[in-house]
Amino acid sequence: MVEAKPKLLIVEDDLDVADMLNAYFRVQGYEVFTVNWGEDGVRDCLSYHPDLLILDIRLPDIDGFEVARRIRSNHRTADIPIIFLTEKRERNDRLQGMELGADDYITKPFDVQELRLRVRNVLRRAGQGSLTNPVTGLPEGTLVNERLSECIDKPAWTLLIVGLENLDIFREAYGFVASDDALRAVSLMILNALREINNPEDFLGHLGQTEFVLVTGPERVKELENRIRSRLEQSLEYFYPIKDREQKLSNGKRLGFKMGVLRSEDGEMSSLDALKLALVRSKA
Fold this sequence. Notes:
Layout: E1 7-11, H1 15-27, E2 31-35, H2 38-48, E3 52-56, H3 64-73, E4 82-86, H4 91-99, E5 104-107, H5 112-128, H6 142-152, E6 158-165, H7 167-174, H8 176-197, E7 203-208, E8 211-216, H9 221-235, E9 256-263, H10 272-281
Parallel strand pairs: 1-2, 1-3, 3-4, 4-5
Antiparallel strand pairs: 6-8, 6-9, 7-8
Helix pairs in contact: 2-3, 7-8, 8-9
């Protein structure tokens, strides 16, 4: 079997640089797509789901930060590694790139050999797969997929999903440190509720960056749901500074949550993807 070529998407408005990178990485054995506009980059990430995105920050329509923000906020593209390619050298630009989950950052003028090595290293790290979430420390990626796949093979199972809503809006208003603190606190509230039930077979992990999935038993799921709902309803407002707890944000969207339960009797799940989709749709 012929091994599939890694797919690179290059979003670069300098046509000379884009053509040079296209030709160089094709010779290196990559499948390469190039676009010159940010909106096209977002669209092609959804269409092709590249293995890695090389993204210029200065673009003629939306900037690279906005491209990255949209990619990270869509569950279909959130896991695509990003290398920022830019002329900007300011510390704030690097911080903003890190805040958006950039995997690497290289400034122009650059050594194409160095870029090749950075691409190789990022793809190698991505290929190893993530095991735990860097903010909450909870299992994600491969570990969660393995546990959910086990459910498909069992005659009876129960899953509880908890989704934190509007964290991206909260992050824009208060910064990524406050956002990470809120996500971490929510994970601890859910984890503590699970520990109080005290069943060693139960499992908690990330389905998405702001979505948690619990594998539990049908006799425990209602109590777990009530405990988690009570904690979150009492706590979310306290993530805001005192001066902002009463007043609404300009868009009116504040931190919230949705929960859902999926049971084996809700229908046969033919695949892991089908199970995840049904679980997400169960939220109300």
